[in-house]
Design a protein that fits this description.
Helix content: 40-55%
Order of helices and strands: EHEHHEEEHHEHEHHEH
CATH architecture: 3-Layer(aba) Sandwich
Number of strands: 8
Number of domains: 1
CATH topology: Rossmann fold
Strand content: 15-25%
Radius of gyration: 17 Å
Oligomer: single chain
Strand order of the largest sheet: 2-6-1-7-8
Bound molecules: cytidine-5'-diphosphate
Shape: globular
Largest sheet: 5 strands, parallel
Distance between the termini: 35 Å
CATH class: Alpha Beta
């Protein structure tokens, strides 16, 4: 197997990881993979099957019997498939937001889903975003970033996204949702959200997407804008 290059971007909900990862991948000619969609697809499966997201055995059983695939789109984006169905829009719904972090806590479920993530990184040079990419999924990545922003700014960005999609939700609800996912993702025993050793931390509270990508390109030794 030939050696592939990988860039890991981790960070909390609403930090802009996916937008930045996608833009960076496009500039470098790498594939972009957002691993949260894998956990979101499994979370959607629990809702559809009426599986208790806190029941590790049941969630693991569902993970083993579900076919989750990430397909690259012609414009460098990603579509998510669950058992052959395109669920890219369904996994962004509020009910999925509500169960995805509890579903993602289970060690055996994570162990199973890591295989899928690593196989994607073996196929192509990759920019991968998530919570544990630099620490667990691709610890050997030569470049790691931890993208963060204040909770209020992250909630503001999410709220704007929801409004654009016509999703009626108050800013306070979005902020509570972000804080609650932060607490579960950072507090879990397995693969918690932490800064990976050697990661470049970027607080993008007051930065544009272009500025963040520019800073990453500089860290990668390429000239930023
Ligand atoms: O886009 P957003 O920041 O809201 O989250 P996401 O990247 O879509 O991830 C959704 C959830 O999946 C996170 O809150 C984590 O609970 C879980 N996740 C994880 O545990 N490990 C990853 N590598 C990616 C996501």
């Amino acid at each position: 197997m030939s050696y592939r290059r990988s860039i890991a971007i981790d960070g909390p909900a609403g930090s802009g990881k996916s937008t930045v990862a996608r833009g960076l991948a496009r500039m470098l000619g790498y594939r972009y993979v957002s691993t949260g969609d894998i956990y979101r697809a499994l979370a959607l499966a629990t809702l559809r099957k009426g599986v208790d997201p806190t029941d590790e055995q049941e969630v693991e059983r569902l993970a083993l019997e579900s076919r989750i695939e990430l397909h690259e789109t012609a414009d460098g984006g990603q579509r998510t498939f669950l058992n052959g169905e395109d669920v890219s829009d369904a996994i962004r719904r509020a009910d999925v937001d509500g169960v995805v972090s509890p579903v993602s806590v289970h060690p055996r479920v994570r162990a199973w889903l890591i295989g899928l993530q690593r196989s994607l990184a073996n196929e192509r040079d990759i920019v991968m975003d998530g919570r544990d990419i630099g620490t667990v999924v691709l610890p050997e990545s030569e470049h790691k970033f931890f993208l963060t922003a204040s909770p209020e700014e992250r909630a503001r960005r999410r709220h704007k996204e929801y409004e654009a999609k016509g999703r009626a939700v108050s800013f306070d609800e979005v902020l509570q949702g972000v804080l609650s996912r932060d607490a579960i993702d950072s507090g879990r025993a397995t693969a918690p959200l932490v800064v990976a050793p050697g990661a470049v931390v970027i607080d993008c509270t007051n930065m544009s997407v272009a500025q963040v990508i520019g800073e990453m390109l500089r860290a990668l030794g390429r000239t930023g804008n």
